[in-house]
């Protein structure tokens, strides 16, 4: 094969490499530029709407807090803003990470079997089930969360049923508890978990599962050594897409919780819009970003994404 | 023998469609057994039932004295080399091969894996990924991954189907060598009749979910059981004939007004309507205008096509009753092959004939069909 190709090339240009035509050089240059051209629109967008505002926000977070909107702020590189923010609101930061983490785990536990069933067991119902997963998005976030407020309320059906269960106290309630906030987060972010999981499970080759069975793997073992590792990209993507927005969310805590369940988002909300303490709001935003970044990086390392193709 | 694989009356239906139809089969321990059949005749389904990936609708599968019909795949002492290889893309070659050993908690995994890679001639490939290997190499890994478990039966589903011709020949020799070396029973599924004849000690010809004939390649080739087999394994010329009588050990036949002889020992039916068959390479042609030597069966005809293929020449002859007959002639002497249009006599020893049953209702059309069961002849 190679010999034949070589002989053909040799026949075309006896002695020495073939001369490279001018158009070929131009074509090669264009090909080298292509990746950059593809990066350009997205890069510009990020620069304009992420990098520039972030730098501005970083500046704001270091303003002297004794200023105000009316009197103006002076840049004093007040790193103490960060210490003040942590000192005053560390419980909220912890709650954000904690609630979002728990909600993400629950989403994974609920979403994985759901995505697997849609991808491999649903047959002709597949499309319909996928639409059902996405359907809640047709209502706005706020209205959906308000609906959960009435579902979980003290006179609502869930609490009513639970109170009828023996050993559940009669004053048992869901609304205004951490559980309610986590429920809301799970409900609102479940599709972000299911869709990437579905995408990676759908690509899973059923013949690999049969091969595992043929090689003495019981169904559970097959899941552990074949299905799960091959769906890791979906697990990682789904987890990040759920955890990151959930950690920054404040609507669920606002509507389903009390100030005792407030997350850092609620504090930022009030610092920006109620107390007008811009430097502190900016500092908290950065602290939230840093928390998320640290958690995500350590998670991605633990999940070992480079192991996964 | 104690470890034979025995399928008894196995039927598999998918809805109303019957993929495997009351199939009975005995695969002797230690044999290289080929299941030969056209695409869609139920070979894969049969293999999957032996592997436990499909449950028979009816029938039993036994391995030695153990009934394995309802056993889960992971409990069966059989392993499969899949048609698509089905290597685990997230595991390296070493871990792919070690998969079965690890699931059963075996020791000395690394040593066994290395030994297997040696056997399939890929030493030192442990750390590569399946995607980095060529088709032929993946094929070998799939073989090693199955064989390392020392199965009592190794199932191979068209393992060489995806390889190009040259590599396929090489792997056929290789597979044969490995089977001789390890002595495991190989149940090899293929649609390639040459592959089946070359490799297997026993061939079972399958058609529409049933076994048509089973035996050593030479037995099936020399004395096929019916027109389908006579044209699935190699080619045959079949002439519609009647048994006219008997003289000694030979049957006397009439076909299209001419008389023929065939050994009674090579007849599936000794009376009434029959097919008179002869393989193309058993037939010789006279030089133009010359008579055929005495004591031979003979057919006059006009050459319609001549295909010179180097080692042999393949002639097509049109008989007076307008049937095509093919003749393979070894190019043993120098000189030009006979040109189309030449009038010749085709002749062969009566001992090379075979006789098949021709039930009422089947006529020359069947002979045409039988000459080209797959519809692939040019
Ligand atoms: N899971 C299945 N569902 C429905 N029909 C099937 C299934 N598997 C195989 N068949 C049908 O059974 C027949 C035999 O298939 P198969 O065993 O794969 O043939 P082969 O391997 O000989 O080509 C085919 O007609 C095929 O369409
Ligand atoms: Mg098949």
Automatic annotation (TrEMBL), chain B:
Residue stretches making up the ABC transporter domain: 5-233
Molecular function as annotated in GO: ATP binding; ATP hydrolysis activity; transmembrane transporter activity
Pfam families the record matches: ABC_tran, TOBE_2
Domain of life the protein comes from: Bacteria
InterPro entries in alphabetical order: AAA+_ATPase (IPR003593), ABC_SmlMolc_Importer (IPR050093), ABC_transporter-like_ATP-bd (IPR003439), ABC_transporter-like_CS (IPR017871), Mo/tungstate-bd_C_term_dom (IPR008995), P-loop_NTPase (IPR027417), Transp-assoc_OB_typ2 (IPR013611)
Keyword entries, A-Z: ATP-binding, Nucleotide-binding, Transport
UniProt keyword Cell cycle, yes or no: no
Gene3D superfamilies linked to this entry: 2.40.50.100, P-loop containing nucleotide triphosphate hydrolases
GO cellular component: ATP-binding cassette (ABC) transporter complex
Protein name as catalogued: Spermidine/putrescine ABC transporter ATP-binding protein
Organism: Actinophytocola xanthii
